[in-house]
Design brief:
about 220 residues, alpha+beta, Muramoyl-pentapeptide Carboxypeptidase, domain 2, two-stranded antiparallel sheet, 7 helices, 8 strands, about 35% helix, about 15% strand
Length: about 220
């Protein structure tokens, strides 16, 4: 630590730009995940689940490390809030389908490696893929609306999930598609979630204190 401090002090005098290497997120011991994470369907079994990163049906074309069965977890506070969102939607014949929640750190690193390997580092620069993600904290969720009057079919949100284009930006929609996006945002924000403007499907949740990242397998 003393050597790093000295280097930072000397850098301006030497005309050198000081650089600090990002050590990555602090990862909680496995037992902590058992107490802080909860299955999203534990609060409401009517929430539909399609864990895309546990399959090849995602933008990388392969299952990501750390994912197992078709199960999605969130921090307990966020999972409880999501159950409240589901109850709000149910009164109007609508519901939620969740694509991703807690994401193991190893899966996030695999996404970054995929971007590097395929020459798509611009997706990181543009904010579509993050080397540090609130998904790793269990505090981000990717989801859409379903209409129970037509058998729980997904509604038209304008683009498929994980579309890396301006069409997926929340505000870039009109007509019924915009109204669906507005409905999802309204009910999610009513329960404490915050929308990410570049991705209509992505919402995050705040908890007190300094949340920690997890790298336990989804089982």
């Amino acid at each position: 630590m003393l050597g790093l401090t000295l280097a930072l002090l000397l850098a301006p005098m030497l005309g050198v730009a000081a650089q600090v290497v990002d050590p990555g997120p602090a990862i909680a011991p496995p037992g902590v995940a058992d107490t802080l994470l909860a299955d999203v369907r534990a609060g409401d079994t009517t929430i539909a689940i399609e864990a895309r990163y546990a399959t090849s049906n995602n933008f990388t074309g392969a299952p990501l490390p750390g994912y197992g069965p078709n199960r999605i977890y969130l921090r307990r506070e966020a999972a409880a809030a999501l159950a409240r969102v589901q109850r709000r939607l149910a009164s109007g014949g609508m519901g939620l389908k969740v694509f991703d929640g807690y994401r193991p750190v190893r899966a996030t690193l695999a996404m970054v490696e995929w971007a590097r390997r395929t020459g798509r580092m611009h997706l990181i620069e543009e904010g579509y893929i993050a080397s540090r993600s609130r998904h790793n904290l269990g505090l981000a969720v990717d989801l859409t609306l379903v209409d129970w009057s037509v058998g729980g079919r997904e509604v038209d949100m304008g683009t498929p999930y994980d579309t890396f284009s301006v069409d997926a930006h929340w505000a870039n929609a009109t007509g019924r598609t915009l109204r669906y996006r507005q409905l999802l945002r309204r009910v999610m924000e009513a329960e404490g979630f915050r929308q990410y403007d570049l991705e209509w499907w992505h919402y995050s949740y705040e908890v007190p204190g300094e949340p920690v990242a997890f790298d336990v397998e989804v089982r």
